[in-house]
Design a protein that fits this description.
This protein is α/β, with parallel strands linked by helices. It is built from 8 helices and 7 strands. It has 2 domains: 94 residues, Metal-dependent hydrolases (TIM Barrel); 81 residues, no CATH class. The protein is globular and about 50 Å long.
Length: 221
């Protein structure tokens, strides 16, 4: 399980959890919805933490243009600086992308990083192919289980399986059967069942492939 940080204040908690539980792996980053609480020196702390704690990725970072009146220029500053850190340390990136797919892609093209995961992907097929071309896997989770998410379900059904990873984003983005309740990592098997049904494949095929994809992009093989 990947446990991503969202700001400097919870770097220590993430490190502690991942030291206590062998199945957990840390990622460290400054989430776009936490940038107003960040300071420039947090970037130096981030770099040192990534080096010290054997992180699998930089993240969660990215851009969020959904929340009104959020400082987009400040988001972009911290996103760009974190991409530079990922590039320098040769680490993949876990991306938060909400109503900001094209701006994120523009920065990824400008600052090359060694791939990563576009978490909770919800863009177009053309945008999906752009991420894939840049070495990213696409995260599918609870949103895909809702029948009204027709475009997302179509993408999950038709994109190459080797570019998909499964996720929960616990405690957020609950699957349909939780009716808005708290999400947990334990929901992942049922999410895998939904993806298998959409694709007309067996659950075993989906589990093996998406697990291999995650290990490959996070270099856990």
């Amino acid at each position: 399980m990947v446990v991503p940080a969202v700001e400097r204040a919870n770097f220590g908690a993430v490190a502690s959890v991942c030291r206590e539980f062998d199945e957990c792996r840390p990622a460290y980053g400054i989430h776009p919805l936490y940038v107003t609480r960040a300071r420039h020196e947090d970037l130096d702390t981030l770099r040192r933490t990534l080096e010290r704690e054997s992180a699998v990725a930089v993240g969660e970072t990215g851009l969020d243009h959904f929340v009104p009146d959020w400082d987009e220029s400040l988001q972009e500053f911290y996103f760009v600086e974190q991409l530079k850190i990922a590039r320098d340390l040769d680490l993949p990136v876990i991306l938060h992308v909400r109503r900001a797919v094209d701006p994120v892609l523009n920065q990824l093209r400008r600052i090359g990083v060694p791939g990563g995961i576009a978490h909770a992907f919800n863009g177009s097929r053309q945008q999906a192919e752009a991420f894939i071309g840049l070495g990213f896997k696409l995260g599918f989770g609870g949103a895909m289980t809702h029948l009204r998410a027709t475009r997302l379900r179509q993408l999950a059904a038709t994109l190459p399986l080797d570019c998909i990873v499964l996720e929960t984003d616990a405690p957020d983005i609950p699957p349909a059967w939780l009716a808005g309740g708290r999400n947990e990592p334990g929901e992942l098997p049922r999410i895998a069942e939904v993806l298998a049904e959409l694709r007309g494949q067996t659950v075993a095929e989906v589990v093996v492939a998406t697990g291999a994809n995650a290990r490959a992009v996070l270099r856990l093989n």
